[in-house]
Prior knowledge:
Layout: H1 3-18, H2 22-33, H3 36-58, H4 61-66, H5 69-92, H6 103-116, H7 120-129, H8 139-164, H9 167-175, H10 177-201
Amino acid sequence: MALDHWLALCAVCWLGAASPGPSLAVIAGATLGGNRATGLTAALAHGAGVGIYALATVTGLALLLAGAPELLRAIQLVGAAYLAFLGLRALNSPLGFSLGSSAGDQAARDGFLIAFLNPKLALFMLALFSQYLHADAGWGQKLIMVATAAGIDATWYGLVVLLIDAPALRTRLEQRGGWLGRGFGVLLLVLAAWMTLGAVWSL
């Protein structure tokens, strides 16, 4: 893969990862509900979810998803339901961010599923990779593209975790943990409703 193409791919992947959305809320919540390790676990799991969609794209599975609107809609609805579950969990927690005793496992699950249950990632990867992936591309180039997408996503959210976990900022956020956590819960419920309406409107 040419260096200029790879750098362009990196730039677009970085912009895609940095776009605000439910993933940011989930990973921020994992960090505040646990610790730096918990947040980084969620970030790495989110990167793994992105990597699966990237792998699906280079193997042609994303084309199947793009051509199957019923399957796309079903995954979107499941993703909306999971967002609603996370939102309700945040609202019902005293601090809004509590992850319980299995914080690491729960953070990994939440980080992975918030990416995996977002079928728009597959469409994003399909649109992005089609610019650089040719019919005669070998597995070396394909794996570089997959690793780039997954690695940049995990790195971005890892930086977010480090920022949130900085002592001064974390102290300020924890002092407002109750209303901030419930604010995240409301945000997730709104996003869940938006995703559900989007899936219904596409019928």
